[in-house]
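Contributing new records

If you add data, match the layout below exactly. Sequence lines come first and carry their own label; structure lines follow with theirs. Keep one chain per record. Anything else will be rejected by the validation script.
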Amino acid sequence: MIVEFGAFALILAMSLSALQLGLSAAGRIRRSPVLASAGQGAALAAAVAVVLAYAVLISAFAQSDFSVANVAANSHTDKPMLYKVAAAWGSHEGSLLLWCLVMTVFGGALARARGLPFGLKASAVAVQGALSTLFLAFAVFTSNPFARLDPVPFQGASLNPLLQDPALAIHPPLLYAGYVGFSVTFSLAVAALIEGRAQSSFWPAWGRWMRPWALASWGLLTIGITLGAFWAYYELGWGGWWFWDPVENASFMPWLAGTALLHSAVVTERRGALAGWTVFLALLTFTFSMLGAFLVRSGVLTSVHAFAVDPERGLMLLAILGLTAGLAFALFAWRAPTLKGGGVFAPVSREGALVLNVLFLTAAAATVLLGTLYPLILEAASGATISVGPPWFAITFTPLMIVAFLILPAGPMLAWKRGDVRGAMQRLALAAGLALVAGLAGWAMFEPKQVLSAVGIAVGAWLILGTLTEIAERVRLFRGPLGTSARRLRKLSLGTWGMTLAHAGLGVFVLGAVVETGYRVEAAEVVALGGEVTAGPWVVRLNQVEVVEGPNYLAEQGRLTVARPDGAAARAIVAERRFFPAGGQTTTEVGLDFRGLDDVYVVMGERRATPAGEPAWTVRVWWNPWARLIFLGPAIMGLGALLSLLDRRLRVGVGARPKAT
């Protein structure tokens, strides 16, 4: 009966979300606080109902209840408990319920938000209710995670072994929290369009109300994408961390649009300008999230990340995307002439720099969208197949981002309304000089000599040094007693520190990505016991191979040693090939040796034989220099988002319009 209770809770949540929509809309139309409050109560109740439904689903997986079709298709009695629980979001039905869970929880949080004007809040809660109703209806009528099986199988089919990993246990919830969290900015944007506020004084306050939601979603999405990249790095065994896979792009497009939204919202909040851009980006960001949901669930993509789902359900998701995005952008087109914020500014100003960053980020997102959808459109139209991979993105996407990175440190050095280019460049001269030195040092340090990689190192250093220069300018370092500068440093707001960490973390990531991509060394050999493979400055020796038994797999485990050519700095690592009897699948478990900022990355292949008949194995080795920075940088960015959210200015009701400084 507990499974039926979960199904009932899901249907109840759909009904409550529809009630949330109706009551909030009626409260707004009739200007009735009672009806609007009832709508907010329905939003909270819907969130509770979905939480209960998800608890029931997790319980079914934990107990290996194979009478539930979803459990039978994605679980097995031999699986460790962690992966039994994680399997609850490892399928289409379970992950869709996770989507609904995040959406209703964010909707409940929006209903509890303080400081919003009555009309704007009622409209936003109604829009959030409409979104929740659509996705819950999709789950109830086409993707019910509680559907029963008869007869009940004795054993389950188990989850894809590639997904049985600790990173994949926490990656989807964080990714979805970022993905779906942007539904609140979408709802606030639609609500602002419904309200039709033409006063320039409205938009700074609206930007401040909207920015915490965008910041929280962006931070969660940043960490979620990073965990996914780290999983692909050490689980798939191909030596890389990003392949421009269409499903990877599906999460990257909302991140790019969300980054542009954050920068545009700053201008709207501080100066009342770019109201139209901020509203447009709020709509676009969640539209990209819904597009990603369609791509991974429609069956149009073949990817290790995708859910293999029948096209009929994909068409229904496409209909939801078309309905919600179509109505929102139609409303935007109707209201666009009235979206005239105040805050006139010169082209050379802090606003101007932020506008340029927004334009380049939006163009970059459009580039990723084109590269992702063009092969699908071409195949649907003509039957021809084409692959758009890293070379194409390197030519189109990378130049746009380099220009955006060059502009980024200059923005905070310019004044609001009208800036001084010469003064900003003088303050950044030392950072620019040191960044140039860093690029030359990279040229001298790494082999082979690569101009583009040296430029990338200089750009990464420029981001970090420019950010540090901005902090030094704020505290007037070396322009007075150091004690005075130290006191100013302690008084800097959390929002300032958050921005600093986000920009510096981006620089750290750029350094890691450039060096790892440009100077990675790969080697592969078929070796017997005692054989060696050399990659870069490291020698990997295969010492022993044995068969071990795991909780739900058998593994051929290789014990290896990583050392310098002279035998110094030796360390032992383990690499495996695992066979999962339940699904009949074989996976690789990478052997990773962390060497400071570098990784020595080892994959053991199939058993072979030497010409003399001795057993041998294919051992593939990568030396990935500075790979640590690729994952450290986004972690710093996520910390920056958290610090910004803790800033008191983002937690209290909006008062008077903030003054530009």
